[in-house]
Amino acid sequence: MDCKYHKGSEAKYICDKCKQPICEECSVDVNGNKICSSCIQKSLFSENRQYQKPGFFKNLAFFCFAVVPGAAQMYMGLFKRGFQLMFGFISAFVLFSYLNTESMMLLIIVPTWFFSFFDSYAIRRRINKGEEVEDSVIIDYNIFIENKRAVGMAMLFLGIFGVINALRYSVIRNILGGDLYWSIRRSVMPVALIGAGVYMLSKSKKKTEVKDTESIVEAEEVEEAEVAAEAEEVEEEEIEVIE
To answer: Under the phi-then-psi rule, with left for phi > 0, alpha for psi from -120 to 50, and beta for the rest, what region is 137?
Structure first.
């Protein structure tokens, strides 16, 4: 087991305060208890630091950042978390607009906005208490890579839904005297999403077929090994009988 603060160094103790594995270099003996240097620094910092209430302008500035999803997190130095929130919020807004599914936009945008707003204040309270906040993403990107089939089906559904809406709007506009360019423009993104969904489904299908083929080959190899072992046992028994 590696040390939490020194990757590659073997952990020899467990910190009695944070319960994390630590190496000999990180450990400090305090009355027979092994404490990591990080916990000691936090304790000294929290004891000696006098909390100062932020002023009006700091609170106002932070509120303005918190209103923009991800901006307050970046303001506090959590760039990975803030970027994912901001990118997800803007991407959802653009995607649903181009997919002609504005009615579904609120299902993603409103919860994301409220989560980002209250998350920024929760992190701010933790930082003011002297806690260490890790800059981690909210949703692991590997989820999309590992679940290509589900992602492909979602893309396919949204694309088909967007094409249906585009055709519906184009029929209405043709009746009212709309132009063809507008209809084609609204159909480009849904069609592209359908193509991406089909591609993701085909990739997941190929991956499944490869796994099935590998499992079949492994089963055949195991069966051949068992048959060979049985043949060797029979030969040994025949030799013993002859002797």
So the answer is: beta
